[in-house]
Design goal:
Distance between the termini: 55 Å
Helix content: 40-55%
Strand content: 15-25%
Shape: globular
Largest sheet: 7 strands, parallel
CATH class of the largest domain: Alpha Beta
Structural class: alpha/beta
CATH architecture of the largest domain: 3-Layer(aba) Sandwich
CATH topology of the largest domain: Rossmann fold
Number of domains: 3
Order of helices and strands: EHEHEHEHEHEHEHEHHHEEEHHHHH
Number of strands: 11
CATH superfamily of the largest domain: NAD(P)-binding Rossmann-like Domain
Radius of gyration: 20 Å
């Protein structure tokens, strides 16, 4: 049995990963779970999966949980506690499902631990991709992508000569507003944005899918994961969301990975790799698929995607600034303090004001992240 720790077990990806384990008894053992502060979800997870290790990053919530558990479960608290849990030798694989930029330091610590990583967070790679990939190479740590698009690319490239790769095609459903005119986007509500036509996801990533910033972040993620220039990474709107990504080789051959829209499928493969295990999840029914559509994304309707390509063309600290400004903007939109169409406006203003550092170290990236957040709040205040 593979011993697994899930960092961010109370989020959408973390809960899906536990469902994979639940559906494959005897294959995996949960030895560690962590959350930021959501102990209402974590507590029943502990009762069901009986991990030896638990971490809560919020001190008050962690102390409260500790008082409710028996002494046989080791409860870690705070950032230092999470780092200590990550180092535990009983863990074979870490599923990194912490959302947003908060995953960066835990990911670096997980690499330092030398354990295999199933990576379900894109923001950390966007912020510090070159540093992360270099450290993983030095430590000989395998990073297996969990995102459906990156998993698709990774599976299509398995065993292939990367020097013969011509293009990567990242597919996007287009979200709920792919047919909405630019002028009609102005009055879009939070409730409308959170009704994604294909995927069930967390609130932040659902907003990013509606703006197509999610796909822009994946462009940057793919650059670092697969060592590809941005000019070779294309985005295709594919409303059916059956093809999760494609790779094209210099001889014109294109390989694609197809499956239903269920995150448990790429999660399961990341956990079981290199084996493929049977499951009870629904399958693609080709007899019911009448057609598959593909469209070029419209940057005027989806300016966030263009902003992501702008950051990808310069790299340095610009991707970290892009990500931070977007996180602040999405957070304020979800609080109904910012209009949907103002999200890219804020991000663009922050990018315009940033003095890029071309070869940053980790401190440079963290400083750029903090600066971008302050500038994003300023830009939001100026819009008002």
């Amino acid at each position: 049995m593979k011993n697994i720790a899930i960092l961010g077990s109370t989020g959408s990806i973390g809960r899906s990963a536990l469902d994979v384990v639940r559906n494959l008894p005897g294959e995996f053992r949960i030895v560690g779970l962590s959350t930021n502060s959501n102990t209402d979800i974590l507590y029943p997870q502990i009762k069901e999966f009986h991990p030896a290790l638990v971490c809560v990053r919020d001190t008050r919530a962690g102390l409260d949980l500790k008082s409710r558990l028996n002494s046989q479960i080791k409860v870690y608290i705070g950032e230092d506690g999470l780092e200590e849990m990550i180092r535990d030798r009983r863990i074979d694989q870490i599923v990194l499902a912490i959302s947003g930029s908060a995953a960066l330091i835990p990911l670096l610590k997980a690499i330092d631990s030398g354990k295999e990583i199933a990576l379900a967070n894109k923001e950390a790679l966007v912020m510090a991709g070159p540093i992360i990939i270099r450290k993983a190479r030095e430590r000989k740590v395998k990073i297996i992508p969990v995102d459906s698009e990156q998993s698709a690319i990774w599976q299509c490239l398995n065993g292939q000569d990367l020097n013969k790769l011509k293009n990567i095609y990242l597919t996007a459903s287009g979200g709920p507003f792919r047919k909405t005119s630019k002028k009609d986007l102005k009055g879009i509500s939070v409730r409308q944005v959170l009704k994604h036509p294909r995927w069930r996801m967390g609130r932040k990533v659902t907003v990013d899918s509606a703006t197509l910033m999610n796909k822009g972040l994946e462009v940057l993620e793919a650059m670092f994961l697969f060592n590809m220039g941005v000019d070779k990474i294309k985005v295709l709107i594919h409303p059916e969301a059956i093809i999760h990504s494609m790779v094209e080789f210099i001889d014109g051959v294109i390989l694609a990975q197809l499956s239903i829209t269920d995150m448990r499928i790429p999660i399961q493969y990341a956990l079981s790799y290199p084996e493929r295990l049977s499951n009870r999840f629904p399958n693609v029914d080709f007899y019911k698929i009448q057609k598959l559509n593909f469209q070029k994304p419209d940057f005027k309707r989806f300016p966030c995607l263009e902003l992501a390509y702008r950051a990808a063309n310069v790299i340095g600290t610009m991707p970290a600034v892009l990500n931070a400004a977007n996180e602040v903007s999405v957070e304020e939109f979800l609080k109904s303090k910012l209009d949907f169409v103002s999200i890219p406006k804020v991000v663009a203003k922050v990018l315009d004001r940033h003095k890029n550092i071309r070869q940053p170290n980790l401190d440079d990236i963290l400083e750029a992240d903090a600066w971008a957040r302050r500038e994003a709040y300023k830009a939001i205040g100026q819009l008002g």
